[in-house]
Amino acid sequence: MLEQSYTPENFEEKIYTAAEEKGMFRAESRSKPGQKTFLITMPPPNVTGALHIGHALFVSIQDTYTRWKRMLGYNTLWLPGTDHAGIATQVMVEKQVAAEGTSRQQLGREAFLKRVWEWKKEFGGTITDQIRVLGSSTDWSRELFTLDTKSSNAVKASFTKLYHDGLIYRGERIVNWSSGLQTAISDLEVELKPVQGAFYYVKYMLADGSDSLTVATTRPETIFADVAVAVNPADERFAAFKGKEVIVPLSGRRIPVIEDSYVDKEFGTGALKITPGHDANDWAVGQRHKLKTLTTINKDGKLNELAGEFAGMVAAHSRKKVAEKLKELGLLVKEEKHNYELGYCQRTGVVVEPLVSMQWFMKMKPMAEMALKAASGEDPALRFYPDFWKKTWFQWLNNIQDWCISRQLWWGHQIPAWHCEKCAQITVPKSEKDLEPAACAHCGSALIHQDPDVLDTWYSSALWPISTLGWPEKTQDLETFYPRLRFDELRQGREAKALMETGSDILFFWVARMVMMCTYFMDGRLPFEDVFLHAMVFDEKGQKMSKTKGNVVDPLDVTAKSGSDTLRLTLLALSGQGRNVNLDLKRLDGYKAFINKLWNASKFSLMQLSEQDVSSYKNPMDRLAELDFVDRWLLSELNETVKRVNDELTHYRPDAAFNAMYQFIWYEFCDWYLELVKVKKGSLDTLCYTLETLLKLLHPMAPMVAERIYSELPWAQAGQLMVQKFPVAHAGVIAQPSDLEEIRALKAVTEGIRNFRTENKIPPRTPVNAFLQTEQKPLWEKLSRFVVSLAKLGDVSVNAAAPGGASGKVATNEFTLTIPLEGLVDTGAEKSRLQNEIKRVRTDVEFSLKRLENPAFVERAKPELVDKERATLTANKEKLAVLEEALKRLG
Q: In 3D, which of 231, 229, 239, 234 has the Cα closest to residue 204?
């Protein structure tokens, strides 16, 4: 028996635990003959992490699709895992050992890694336990970790092949360097923050002493590593300087003036200092012009001997000192305030320096060609939802740079390459099965050691769709679940076998790399055909959530208070394609009220079944001709809802799918049909069928409450809703046009009378008499018992003259009802109240009109304030019209 009120804490955990223990979330390695498969690979959350609202969004979406496909009969695999989070985890354990008065260097690599594994064992499962709270029906029996044996084997096999295919190399290039972590880091780990800085206009004297060039820079401390000054070849202002040399201020070195179209003529002075050792764009210019590379900032973030008297100073702190010296020597022309964005290390808060470093890199252009081809044309193999991300995809891939894949860490996949101490050559085994070579492949020396660096965390993540299925082995899981569509094939109506659903912020760091890496190793077959990118979750004001702002929403707090289904429905309802999710916690109350309404409707329905001792039902869709117009109307509306839900989910619009359900459940089923059932009595087949269908429709999005209600149906088995067949639309005609017209007429007259009651302050349960005028008496006779009950009418005189006195009218296309007000309303008091209210509302209307007619207000006020005033004016005008009509009725 359902509890008196919706209390999710009483049943959510029990339902979830029972389903997991029964193995109901598991996929089969071999599908049944003719059975379709569906795969979602969960974006592996960091093992260091705790559940946040972004996780709650992706779980809500991915679980919806997993449960939907499972109910449609697919062999469905939602594959879970966690990421070792190289930097984040190492930093956390380093802090732990530092608190004990030691360091990783003192412990040594082996002992330190042992400590990290101990930490992972103790805390690493926290986030997956929290994800369970959200109702995730993921196949936990297949849960993997990015440092597990499966992942490790895939990493070694891929590195070996890419190296010997000439796509992985070791060399010096410019990278993001974190002096706090002492490692290269990815762009994703660089946090851009606005800073108040300055443009320093510095004079570079021509070597022949004839003139000078003025260069604007935000980083005068890097002057010591300048190797050229560049101007745009089309900039006539510098025609006389081309081919000459200038003197580097404070250094005295001679450097050339070069021409390069990269230089923006409108930026600064039009002359640009080129420092390849400390700027990625300058590095590219330096490579084009074969310039040497100098470095004046060391890996500890301090200036080196090139900086002369400034050597040993922290680079960022030396800026003012260098500027003062330039001014003292008459080389600083001027200084202007300039705001710009500066990169900081996300983990340490230290400024990230672009530095030249010896690292391992992967050539990306050959792989990018496959990823570009996959999304090209009108019928591409790879599709994006929303579609506008395709443009961004092309822009990034067409300008892709080689990927720095090495990190100077200990926690992660150690690079499977060995350095020879005799000939200085590198040995990479030609087979992943030859795990550790005994000697150098070039000179045969046994004096070899493994490269100390580890691979970027995103490297193992890029292999996730295949490593989780057992690659490089030819496993049954790969055969069953991995898509067969090639990157160079057309879709041609083929349904996606695998979906990648993730945040738009990691489109390049993860999604693009998965497409490139997996397609390369799987002979051109894509790891997924559809990419659904959800937007970011912000607070109700559209601001990013942060602890410092105090606007962080903890999903566990929400589920403890309102239930996991409430949170899921709220996030799904707000997650329209391409829109950021602005989460107002007040919205949770609205969706909890929706669940409550369904809960109460279900209790009423179950009571009807109990009273009539109903233990099963006949499918009403098989005998439509026997049903009355009310049942056919409801079944027609239900069928349209089923169609819409399936269509919207197919096109990755879960928000629209839920809205279709919401509208039908709240308005058609609860507000109308259940009220009509109280009047019409008779067979409950339609009620049974509709309630069961609604629970099936709702289950993918709100599985716990749907399962709980379903378990109370007399013919249902507890815990079995998730394996029931998902509803699909009926192809034939269900309701005749006459059925729909009769329902429309019924709703119109009922709503008209209800509105009349509200406008005249007549209590909803007080019967009102009416005099009906109509030319459609048979229609009234068919509808009257419903209208009388729903609108709480007393005596209804059909086609009889109404008495004189104060009265009101309710008119629809089919009926006109005159309702005497004598005895229902104190006309004198009501007239006085209405007149006072009209006077007040008119004053408000005039005030709004004056504000909106004032140009100063419209042009200077915040747009949202102006919009609010316009909305207030519209609402008050509508209210005034209603009040005046009510006063008119009183005579």
A: 229
